[in-house]
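User: Hi! I have a protein structure encoded as tokens and I'd like to know what sequence might fold into it. I'm fairly new to this, so please keep things simple.
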């Protein structure tokens, strides 16, 4: 049996460059959400979940309008978070990232993602297709978990706004990454959210 997780990062947030913690989608973010909605409209989803944050909720509403038979439910395990803290094997280049992050934030993120793994990276008794609308670090953690990589390795595993990552969880074999950050549905002008432009 295979459980397919379709991980989608929310669309571009309005005024995200000003450091706002949350907010509505920008006009470009709406177009991104419409594009991924069209891309996923033919998938026979059994369940769909979204982060409760506004930018994810609005993305979910747009996607949900293309697939009204599957209600998209908010789930706190998909909230934006810091999935883990620094470890002795953390490369020095990543140390500065944790400079302004508290131990409480790290502990909360670690607990959240432990529960998220138990919730979704577990075999199903039948083939299932599940949609998870969430955030960059959360998707990076899911990819890291799929590979069994070092705890810090979600850092640098980046996902574009409304990029698509698919993970296949199998009952008798390790999980596999089917695709990561697929942008085929987004024209170059809608490819945002990465540290390096993806024009092609």
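Assistant: Happy to help. Inverse folding works backwards from shape to sequence: for each of the 200 positions I chose a residue that suits the local structure. Here it is:
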């Amino acid at each position: 049996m295979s459980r397919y997780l379709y991980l989608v990062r929310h669309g571009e947030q309005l005024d995200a460059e000003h450091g706002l913690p949350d907010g509505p989608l920008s006009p470009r973010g709406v177009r991104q959400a419409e594009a991924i909605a069209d891309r996923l409209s033919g998938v026979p989803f059994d369940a769909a979940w979204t982060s409760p944050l506004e930018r994810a909720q609005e993305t979910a509403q747009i996607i949900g309008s293309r697939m009204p038979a599957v209600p998209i439910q908010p789930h706190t395990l998909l909230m934006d978070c810091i999935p883990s803290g620094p470890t002795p094997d953390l490369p020095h280049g990543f140390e500065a990232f944790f400079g302004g992050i508290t131990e409480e934030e790290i502990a909360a993120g670690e607990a959240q993602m432990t529960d998220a793994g138990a919730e979704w990276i577990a075999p199903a008794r039948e083939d299932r297709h599940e949609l998870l609308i969430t955030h960059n670090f959360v998707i990076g953690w899911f990819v890291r978990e799929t590979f069994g990589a070092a705890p810090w390795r979600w850092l640098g595993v980046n996902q574009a706004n409304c990029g698509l990552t698919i993970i296949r969880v199998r009952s008798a074999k390790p999980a596999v990454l089917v695709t990561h950050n697929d942008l085929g549905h987004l024209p170059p002008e809608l490819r945002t959210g990465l540290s390096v432009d993806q024009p092609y």
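A useful reference point when you look it over: Helices lie at 27-40, 54-66, 103-120, 136-147. Feel free to ask if any position seems puzzling.
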